[in-house]
TrEMBL record, chain A:
GO-annotated cellular components: plasma membrane
Stretches assigned to the Acyl-CoA dehydrogenase/oxidase N-terminal domain: 4-111
Domain Acyl-CoA dehydrogenase/oxidase C-terminal, chain residue ranges per copy: 222-376
Protein name: Acyl-CoA dehydrogenase
GO MF annotation terms: flavin adenine dinucleotide binding; oxidoreductase activity, acting on the CH-CH group of donors
Cofactor: FAD
Family: Belongs to the acyl-CoA dehydrogenase family.
Gene3D superfamilies, sorted: Acyl-CoA dehydrogenase/oxidase, N-terminal domain, Butyryl-CoA Dehydrogenase, subunit A, domain 2, Butyryl-CoA Dehydrogenase, subunit A, domain 3
Pfam families: Acyl-CoA_dh_1, Acyl-CoA_dh_M, Acyl-CoA_dh_N
Annotated keywords: FAD, Flavoprotein, Oxidoreductase
Biological classification of the source: Bacteria, Pseudomonadati, Pseudomonadota, Alphaproteobacteria, Sphingomonadales
Keyword 4Fe-4S assigned: no
Sections of the chain in a coiled coil: none
Domain Acyl-CoA oxidase/dehydrogenase middle: 116-195
From TrEMBL, chain B:
Membrane-traversing stretches: none
Domain Acyl-CoA dehydrogenase/oxidase C-terminal: 219-367
Keyword annotations of the record: FAD, Flavoprotein, Oxidoreductase
Record's protein name: Acyl-CoA dehydrogenase
Species name: Sandaracinobacter neustonicus
One Pfam family linked to the record: Acyl-CoA_dh_1
Residue span(s) of domain Acyl-CoA dehydrogenase/oxidase N-terminal: 8-117
Coiled-coil annotated residue ranges, if any: none
Length: 396, 370
């Protein structure tokens, strides 16, 4: 099939099956409001075009898949390109038993089940391999006990992708298993987690004598660390830039001149120190765009780019510095908050929410380790807990 | 797109430039030139000229390669990486000044020599205030007989010792104008300056009733000067980006090789995290320099803003990287024989030439609408 034929086919299909007026505010975690449409997308082979036919794909090339994605994006239709983006389905495809895969993957591709991530714990943040939630085999199921944190969508999820310790007498990376844990059961309690921004986008999940069928194990028993790496890779490729801007949105001019406008409104644009700061923060933002554009171009030319690893550090620096600058512009007005003080609300929110980027998904310090080790080839620090049985590792 | 060379031609050009520099501009060569008056390597300049480096901006009709600023910037990255002591920066500014005049007779007379490297130009531009602005021009020009006479001072003139062409930016009754002065003209005093970057040939030039030929048309010509300065800033940004990357590379290399406490010092997070931060500096400098050069080559409306950004981003990245490099190396980089301080000296010089980082940030804010 030529590209032109494919494009014509997809356009025709979308014209017949997608009504842009159906568009609703999409939820990223709960069940999809587009279920019936997504079933049609899957049946037509557009959901996972690069997968083999028996799994709902059409054995297409990645380039053809992107053509389909582009046509879907052009009319705002959901559901294409899930072979690249659907973290849940890709992880299940790679590691679930054939029986569980055939049961769960179609549901994941059609949004028939809601999902959440059960990775981090109070004692296992950056050091994820230190998880202490335990899963003990009892017949054909595992009994699960422990506590998870930073879980989005836990209250509405049908399954959670869970890492739990299944062997305490081996080094920490070797005793972890990966499960699809059913969330709607008595042993699971979800509590919203109030953040420093006074919002609650995440939850704590308390797991007390909950059960997961042994059939829901992904990968081998105690082989969960490798499954997790696959899942994390998909998550990173999807997350891209998760940073959010100021909260109110109303009081915030846009574009590269935004900080100039804010300084003018605050009557401090003639302060030479502030002008220097505006130049610096704005430059960092533009440099980040330039870096991303160059990384993309280099990727296209077939050369890998070290720039890809830098986005998070760059973004953290921008957000924290912009928060400081906005506070500087406001002076004592930054004492206030609430809808009547949108600029203060923005500056104060940003100064707290910047940590979402500099801590979330691994702290900036961990990211510097990753850059140093994987990009620059610097040796790792010796890890004293890498070889000892996890039972003897001090953590928490 | 942004250059007359295809991607393959550009790669081949840069590859042969790298080979030439690896062969003819080693650290030993740089150190030898530091000790010589004028710091000019005539042989290196001749070989660069054979490759067409001085004439990258000059159109083929006047003997150049006509490759434009984007290729110039890439060449400057290579020259900057090895601290090449050449008069390329003042060649670029002189070329852009002549081209900016748009006078075919002047172009036909001056550009071929600039393109083939036989003309080495010095440009007397800023006065002792050293801001590279119209206000800081401190040479006055008044009509005298059939020509003009110049009086005043130019400061921090690059490559005056090796130059056989002197262009002077002076204040005439009708505004800023460009003049040509014969080498060794009567009333002119060239006072070499002791430069902190010892590869740099810097001089103050005094003018007392110096006879000069006016090159620019009547009316204020500052816009032409500013354009030429911007071309110089693009070249300088390339030099800074190339130097930053080279310093970053040898510093991380040292962090992998040097062992203390029984392990590579790069395994310590104190060093590793500095390296990660410097990668961001280094890559951002390259992005900024290349973007500015391409914007200028494309005649993009935001080119001047991109140039301001590149000017301070690259200057700051180079200074920070060279400074941190010394700290990361430890004692070895506190010695004269280690090259780190040569790069720090160049970085500190480059951060002042053609306008300071702070001045470029101020210009950038104005371009943002402030």
């Amino acid at each position: 099939m030529t590209d032109e034929e494919l494009i014509a086919e997809v356009r025709g299909w979308l014209a017949a099956n997608w009504n842009p007026r159906d568009k609703v505010q999409a939820e990223s975690f709960g069940r999809s409001p587009y279920q019936s449409f997504l079933e049609k997308v899957l049946a037509a082979g557009y959901a996972v075009p690069s997968w083999p036919k028996e799994l709902g794909g059409r054995a297409m090339t990645p380039a053809q898949g992107r053509l389909i994605e582009r046509e879907f994006a052009a009319v705002g239709a959901p559901g294409a390109g899930q072979d690249r983006h659907n973290l849940w389905a890709n992880t299940a495809l790679a590691y679930a038993t054939p029986e569980f895969r055939d049961e769960i993957v179609p549901k994941l591709l059609t949004g028939a089940v809601g999902m959440c991530l059960l990775y981090s714990e109070p004692g296992a943040g950056s050091d994820l391999a230190a998880v202490r939630t335990r899963a003990d085999l009892e017949g054909d199921r595992f009994r699960v006990n422990g506590q998870k944190v930073w879980t989005s969508g836990a209250a509405i999820a049908d399954y959670g992708m869970l890492i739990a310790r299944t062997d305490w007498d081996v080094p920490k990376h070797l005793g972890i298993s990966f499960f699809f844990l059913p969330m709607k059961q008595p042993g699971i309690e979800v509590r919203p987690l109030r953040q420093i921004t006074d919002e609650a986008h995440f939850n704590e999940v308390f797991i007390t004598d909950a059960f997961v069928p042994a059939a829901n194990l992904l990968g081998p028993l105690n082989g969960g660390w490798k499954v997790l790496q696959t899942a994390l890779a998909y998550e990173r490729s999807v997350m891209g830039d998760a940073a959010r801007g100021p909260r109110s949105g109303k009081g915030s001019p846009k574009g590269d001149g935004a900080l100039v406008e804010l300084a003018r409104e605050a009557g401090v644009l003639d302060d030479p120190l502030i002008r220097q700061e505006i130049a610096q923060v704005t430059a960092w933002k533009i440099l980040n765009r330039m870096n991303n554009a160059r990384a993309k171009a280099e990727l296209k030319r077939g050369t890998s780019s070290p720039i890809m690893s830098l986005g998070k550090l760059a973004m953290s620096r921008i957000l924290h510095q912009e928060a400081r600058l906005r506070t500087l512009l406001l002076g004592a007005d930054s004492l206030l908050e609430g809808p009547d003080h949108p600029r203060a609300e923005d500056a104060n929110f940003l100064s707290l929410n910047a940590y979402f980027t500099s801590i979330g998904g691994g702290t900036d310090q961990i990211q510097r380790n990753i850059i140093g080790e994987r990009v620059l080839g610097l040796p790792k620090e010796p890890e004293i807990d890498r070889t000892m049985p996890f039972r003897e590792v001090r953590s928490g | 797109m942004t250059s007359s060379l295809s991607a393959e031609e550009l790669d081949a050009f840069l590859e042969s430039l790298k080979r030439l520099l690896a062969d003819r501009c080693t650290e030993g060569d740089v150190r030898r030139l530091m000790e010589q008056p004028g710091h000019h390597d005539a042989d290196l300049w001749a070989r660069l000229s054979e490759m067409g480096v001085p004439g990258l901006l000059v159109e083929p009709a006047h003997g150049g390669l006509g490759a434009g600023p984007a290729v110039l910037e890439r060449a400057m990255e290579e020259l900057g990486a090895v601290l090449a002591p050449t008069p390329i920066l003042s060649t670029v500014i002189a070329t852009a000044l002549v081209q900016g005049l748009g006078d075919e007779a002047v172009s036909a007379r001056l550009l071929p020599g600039l393109a083939d490297g036989s003309t080495i130009a010095a440009v007397a531009l800023t006065g002792p205030a050293a801001k590279w602005t119209a206000e800081s021009v401190a040479v006055a020009a008044i009509p005298e007989g059939n020509g003009w006479r110049l009086d005043g001072k130019a400061a921090f003139v690059l490559h005056a010792s090796a130059a056989n062409l002197l262009l002077v930016v002076a204040r005439a009754p009708d505004g800023i104008a460009l003049f040509e002065v014969e080498a060794g003209a009567k009333g002119m005093s060239v006072a070499p300056l002791p430069a902190f970057d010892r590869t740099l040939d810097l001089a103050d030039i005094g003018f007392e009733g110096v006879a000069a030929v006016r090159l620019s048309a009547p009316g204020d010509g500052w816009a032409v000067v500013e354009q030429a300065l911007d071309m110089g800033r693009v070249a300088l940004a390339g030099e800074q980006a190339g130097g930053t990357r080279r310093v970053f590379e040898f510093t991380t290399g040292y962090a992998r090789d040097r062992h203390q406490f029984g392990r590579a010092i790069g395994s310590f997070q104190a060093i590793k995290h500095m390296a990660a931060d410097l990668l961001l500096e280094s890559e951002s400098a390259i992005s900024a320099a290349r973007h500015a050069a391409e914007a200028l080559a494309d005649g993009a409306a935001d080119a001047p803003q991109s140039i301001s950004l590149a000017a301070f981003a690259c200057a700051d990245a180079y200074v920070r990287t060279t400074a941190d490099s010394i700290q990361m190396h430890g004692g070895i980089a506190f010695t004269w024989v280690h090259p780190a301080h040569l790069y720090l000296r160049r970085a500190r010089a480059d951060a002042q030439l053609l306008g300071s980082s702070a001045a470029m940030r101020e210009r950038f804010v104005q371009q943002l609408g402030g």
